[in-house]
Amino acid sequence: MQADWAQALGFLAAVLTTVSFVPQVIYCWKTRDTQSISLGMYACFSLGVLLWLIYGLLVEQWPVVFANAITLVLASSILYLKIKQPDQ
Predict the structure, then answer these.
(1) C-alpha distances in Å from residue 52, one per residue of 17, 36, 57, 82
(2) Which of these, 50, 40, 57, lies nearest to 72 by C-alpha position?
(3) Which residues cross the membrane (predicted)?
(4) Residue in 74, 75, 63, 68 with CA at minimum distance from that of residue 13
């Protein structure tokens, strides 16, 4: 029973932290404005998320896999825009 509760807590945390990126992604794609975003931060963050995703797969922690797979797509899309549209 405790494992089910812990799994549910993990998925809730995954949903909340992942959803927090959605407004930034929408804003960047609509406006193409990435000037105030740090390239170094998003590069390091995206790499870290990729490593967390691999870790989650290796230890079969599905909340970790779920959150980081989606977050990697969201963060990478911002990173892509930042690289493609250098600061004016």
Answers:
(1) 14, 26, 9, 22
(2) 50
(3) 6-27, 39-58, 64-83
(4) 63
State the pLDDT at residue 7. Answer: 80
| Residue 30, CA distances (Å) to 4, 27, 33, 43 in order | 39, 5, 8, 21
Write the pLDDT tens digit of every residue in 25-55: 999 889 988 888 899 999 999 999 999 999 9
Q: What is the pLDDT of residues 3-19, one digit of tens each?
A: 788 888 888 888 898 89
The H-or-E segment that residue 13 falls in is helix 2-19
Q: Looking at residue 1, what is its pLDDT?
A: 56
Residue 10 tokens, joined: 């993990």
* 74, 25 Cβ separation under 8 angstroms: yes
CA distances from 86 to 19, 23, 38, 81 (A): 26, 21, 11, 8
**Residue pointed to by tokens 């490593």:** 51
